[in-house]
Amino acid sequence: MLKVSNVTKYYGDVKAVDDLSFEVEKGEIFGLLGVNGAGKTTTFRMIMNLISPSSGTILFNGKKIDYNVTDKIGFLTEERSLLTKLTVKEQMLFYGALKSLDEKTVLKRLDELLKRFEIEEYKERKISTLSKGNQQKVQFISAIINEPKLLILDEPFSGLDPLNIELFKNVILELKEKGTSIIFSSHRMDHVELFCEKLAILVKGKTVLKGYLKDIKEDYKIKKIIIEGDVKKTDLKKINGVINVIKTALGYEVNIKDKTYVENVFEYIKTCKKINKFVLQEPSLEEIFVAKVGEAYGK
């Protein structure tokens, strides 16, 4: 288990991370979210022990993270860190050595992973000759070649088409099932919703929202009703508790203050001649993210 406790990091007078705390259990995928400059990269670097926190503690399985522990950590960075003049094989032997793996083990795992990611033919190719998507596959392989107990994924699907996103998704879920603790960061909220049961949203280094995704959605007061049928936008907007009404291709999206106002909308619906659809829809993580970040910035 990774335990980040009351961690703060200053760069001079600038507070990059402000009293951050969270835990990632064995076999759990935790979402760490935020706009650019929110403090995510600084947090990742502190977890990797590349930089030290100004205060607070970071423990993995009860131990302070040092070079012995980092051998058990994998990190896929948002910015590619590949040595493009090397071949794929040379790159993996280099990374494997950094993680205290012998050459035989690296090559065995590399062959298995190249086959899994459908790029076996690129083993002896220079990384500079690979497409952006295939470079991302190599980057991901380098992050898991040591079979990490803790894996940090920062924008793992960058440059990938939908088929390869599905391939990555399956590998990530297999790692979770094997007990790997995973921190997942992405600007694509739909990707976060695919994986993460728990998450934290950072703004300027400070946590503005944290908890289980299902609880966050339940607590978020603004709800959405999808209506298709014989209704009028002007009538919907007059209903008590309705915040906004948006015309869609098939009908209307009605935003209400909270679910206690559903009955008001339903009473109006009962007066309409024809209704094909009336569904209370939970808010998306993207809607919640935009709202919480906007609140933090005073918008």
CATH architecture heading of the largest domain: 3-Layer(aba) Sandwich
Mean pLDDT, rounded to whole units?
A: 91
CATH superfamily of the largest domain: P-loop containing nucleotide triphosphate hydrolases
Under CATH, the topology of the largest domain can be stated as: Rossmann fold
Rg: 23 Å
- Counted by DSSP, the helix tally is 11
**Would you tell me the structural class of the helices and strands?**
alpha/beta
According to DSSP, the number of beta strands is: 14
User: Which strands sit side by side, in order, in the main sheet?
Assistant: 6-7-8-3-9-10
Estimated share of beta-strand residues: 25-35%
State the share of residues found in helices, binned by percent: 25-40%
Describe, in short, the structure shown.
It is built from 11 helices and 14 strands. It is an alpha/beta fold. It folds into 2 domains: 216 residues, P-loop containing nucleotide triphosphate hydrolases (Rossmann fold, 3-Layer(aba) Sandwich), CATH 3.40.50; 62 residues, Alpha-Beta Plaits (2-Layer Sandwich), CATH 3.30.70.
Any descriptors?
35% helix; Rossmann fold; 4-stranded antiparallel sheet; 11 helices; Alpha-Beta Plaits; alpha/beta; 299 residues; 6-stranded mixed sheet
Topology:
Layout: E1 2-11, E2 14-24, E3 29-34, H1 40-47, E4 55-60, E5 63-64, H2 67-70, E6 73-76, H3 88-98, H4 103-116, H5 132-144, E7 150-154, H6 162-177, E8 181-185, H7 189-195, E9 198-203, E10 206-212, H8 213-219, E11 223-229, H9 233-237, E12 242-247, E13 252-256, H10 262-269, E14 275-281, H11 285-296
Parallel strand pairs: 3-8, 3-9, 6-7, 7-8
Antiparallel strand pairs: 1-2, 1-4, 4-5, 9-10, 11-13, 11-14, 12-13
Helix pairs in contact: 3-4
